[in-house]
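Bit of a strange request maybe. I'm writing a small parser for structure token strings and I need a real example to test against, not something I typed by hand. Could someone generate the tokens for this chain?
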Amino acid sequence: MFTKDIGIDLGTANTLVYMRGKGIIIREPSVVAVNTRTDKCRYVGKDAKDVIGRTPGSIVAVRPLKDGVIADFDIATTMLQEFIKKAMRGTVLTKANVIVCIPSGVTAVERRAVREACKKAGAQNVLVVEEPMAAAIGAGLPTNAPTGSMIVDIGGGTSEVAVVSLGGIVASRSVRCAGDAFDAAIINFIKKKYNLLIGERTAENIKLEIGSAFPSENEETMEIKGRNLLNGLPENITISSAEIRDALVEPLSKVIDAIKTTLEATPPELAADIIDQGITLAGGGALLRGLDKLINRETGMPVYIAEYPLDCVAEGTGKILENIDKYQDTLTENVKYY
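Reply from user aminoacidic:
Good idea to test on real output. This should exercise your parser:
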């Protein structure tokens, strides 16, 4: 009666909160704006993202997670506190049982930091589940069946590749190269080629508007604004989707290498299942145009994009919360309090 069960997809770029019985109730960027004079948080989530790159010297927009793990413990705790408070709004004396997702490649210290941050943010009990497992469950893959299913979850800070069977991860690879690395590659490419400096938000817009991983019939162009590094003045240039594709070659090759390495480590019986079932893409990176075609060309496997790639991990935590007994083996800790 006095507990609420919530699942948190604590991502480098976005945080999603799922409440048992209600579905996904919060989708906010993982950003906090801090006043450096008082060390107080001014904005959290969407409000903080809107002020990135536009703040005076006394306010700094911070992303407390880097490469899928906590980089700034205090600010991450404050952010989680805000999100849990928002999720629990209107309920007094109620505690939260939390399931939180972490990348599969994290160390024991990083895992403990996530659990401690949730506890400090007001969670009563905290369970940790690995992100690729939650993504596979959320994407509707038969994770508890004795067949191999492959999930590629490309988020903001990490790309998680895993082969799942019988409620566990058989082979996995976690690379710290994902959406943020794509943005950085675009910034560096434009800086080198045009001597133009652009911000993170502009790079993200370019990626969403004209970014692609595979050539298409309709090549698009986009006008962008930035600061010329030679004379220091603002300038407009027009770039094409072919140029952005060249910029993304290096980070995409790291993701494809991770997929190939995981396939090499997969037992032959499960590899045969993956040839039949194909590879499922989840996470924000799955929305990059032509990525499924590129992976198909490089691996020869059929590639499918999950129905709602951005929601897969959060939906996975939700399914675990709704059927805690069914997914007992998936969780790394004892779940007696449920």
